[in-house]
Write a structure and sequence with these properties.
Helices cover 37% and strands 19% of the residues. It is built from ten helices and nine strands. A hairpin with a 2-residue loop joins strand 8 and strand 9.
């Protein structure tokens, strides 16, 4: 693979026209392009996606867009952290070539009335508790891919169901882009990095740090042949004991199609999925589990 070109100054574009002009210029020079969609408030998890993109494509575009269509009216669209200048510094240091930061009216001009619905894989888990969510995500990611026309687009396994929804959409709609999944980047205590971790008080942060340990423990038990139903009961008890305000879901599903596993032992590569509430903040995480060798 070609090494990515390193620019001294990251470019910023805010319109589809300006984005296309930059990407078309790279294409005319025979360069490949990677896209990393984000909502900003960047952390090391996002930057790992930029580096992954740079290892696979010559140029990387990161988009920063807090997408109103994936938030319900009662959710945190208004308070979602926005820190553009800092994000640009981080992107530049990570070797990103271009930041695409469209205003909402560029993404959803007057008269906009199309949305993408992905069915089975978007049901349950986050699709169960946030029914509006994957429609909003699929629509904006479809638009971002059509706008940037990248060769690859990189998504984190932190949002594992989202990654599978996007893979499904790209396959179903014959979109000419390779979807790359990248591993979850964690804090020292294992908490999955998230822009929403900034909402946590120090007490909540300590509680949040216990979720990954519960999931890892569940995954280890499942990989040793434990039954799914009993493992979920144990995990639920551990989450309740850890001080979380609520457990939204705790499930074991197949890693490829998100089919529910259990009540017996897992028979296919699986993932333990959880969404919890800490204080008022909703956090998600997941952990892989392999079936025991026969
Ligand atoms: P967001 O800005 O939260 O919409 O996330 C943008 C992209 O970064 C998505 O593909 C996420 O899955 C990915 N991402 C967020 N947090 C992490 C993490 N801790 N590790 C890896 N990828 C992540």
């Amino acid at each position: 693979m070609p090494a990515a070109v390193v620019d001294s100054q990251i470019g910023v574009v805010r319109s589809v026209k300006a984005l296309r002009a930059r990407v078309d210029g790279w294409r005319a020079a025979g360069e490949t392009v990677g896209l990393v969609p984000t909502m900003g408030a960047l952390h090391e998890g996002h930057l790992s996606l930029v580096r992954r993109s740079n290892s696979l494509a010559r140029r990387t575009v990161a988009s920063i867009f807090v997408n109103p269509r994936q938030f319900a009216p009662h959710e945190d669209f208004g308070s979602y952290p926005r820190q553009e200048a800092h994000d640009l510094e981080l992107l530049q240091k990570a070797g990103c070539h271009l930041a695409y930061i469209p205003p909402p009216e560029e993404m959803y001009p007057d008269g906009f009335q199309t949305s993408i619905a992905v069915s089975e894989i978007a049901q349950g888990l986050c699709g169960g508790s946030r029914p509006h969510f994957f429609g909003g995500v699929a629509t904006v990611v479809c638009k971002l891919i059509n706008q940037a026309r990248p060769d690859i687009a990189v998504f984190g396994e932190k949002d594992y169901q989202q990654l599978l929804v996007i893979r499904r959409m790209v396959k179903d709609l014959n979109m000419p882009v390779d979807i790359i999944g990248a591993p979850i980047v964690r804090e020292a205590d294992g908490l999955a990095m998230s822009s929403r971790n900034a909402y946590l008080s120090s007490e909540e942060r300590a509680i949040a740090g216990r979720l990954n340990a519960v999931l890892a423990d569940m995954a280890a038990k499942l990989s040793a042949g434990a039954e799914v139903a009993a493992t979920i009961d144990d995990g639920r008890a551990a989450i309740n004991a850890a001080g979380f305000a609520a457990l939204d879901y705790l499930e074991v599903r197949s890693a490829d199609l998100l089919e529910p596993m259990g009540p017996g032992a897992i028979t296919r590569p699986s993932r333990v999925f959880a969404a919890v509430i800490v204080g008022k903040t909703r956090l998600i995480d997941n952990w892989p589990a392999e079936p025991p060798a026969a």
